[in-house]
Design a protein that fits this description.
By secondary structure, the chain is α/β, with parallel strands linked by helices. It has two domains: 119 residues, Rossmann fold (3-Layer(aba) Sandwich), CATH 3.40.50; 107 residues, Winged helix-like DNA-binding domain superfamily/Winged helix DNA-binding domain (Arc Repressor Mutant, subunit A, Orthogonal Bundle). The protein has ten helices and twelve strands. It has a five-stranded parallel beta sheet with strand order 2-1-3-4-5, sandwiched between helices. Helix 2 packs parallel to helix 3 and helix 6 packs across helix 8. The relative contact order is 0.09.
Amino acid sequence: MNILLVEDDPAQAVAVEKTMQQSRHTISKANSGESAIRYLMTHEVDLVVLDWQLAGVAGFEVLHWIRDNLGREPAVLFLTSRVLEVDILRALDAGADEYIVKPFRAIELVARVGALLRRTDPNEKTESVISVGPYVFDPARRSVTLHGNAIELTAKEFDVASFIFANAGRAVSRDLLVKLAWGRELEATSRTVDTHIYRLRRKLALHPRNGVRLSTVYTHGYRLDEVAVTDTVEAADAPAPAPEATACAANA
């Protein structure tokens, strides 16, 4: 499969290329955002390994160009020295699939690259569709629908949501979600998982009217349960008792 490495530091480019050569994939290089875009306009690639801090057109702008012009493919892995959580969230929200902080560990880079390429490999075995109530997750296409309508999720949001739905009826630990979606431990004070859960509640409309309830399990994590839509909707839609009736009941 084809990989484009975008890195303007020659020493870093050599180190990354040497590490990724273990995967035996075709690796092309660009030393600027402009040359990366020119290359992508005329060549098909499966993965872009992208530095954020590039002279001229920054890596973040290259990411925007890719998603605006090429859609969800190719996969994009940010390899950068920017370590602030706000930067990581910004990149993931803009469409990055993975984020590794420099100095990188060779074993981690190889693992992340391999995982991303397996997602885009059409010869990979198709994963089972996950269906809970009106929600349908397709891991192969990395898509989700609610009542047949597509919902756009970032890569990390999809990873978190699909795992929670695949384990409906069971408590899922916060630590396990972190390791599955981020591949590493986050600081104890990090609100990254909570932020993703908050966004998923809104984007997926996770409430009983859609037949599900997402609960927080104190000190542990989260639990998704399928609930009876009819009962919850009727209860929610039932008119409140008239003030006069309430007063009569109180005085009875």
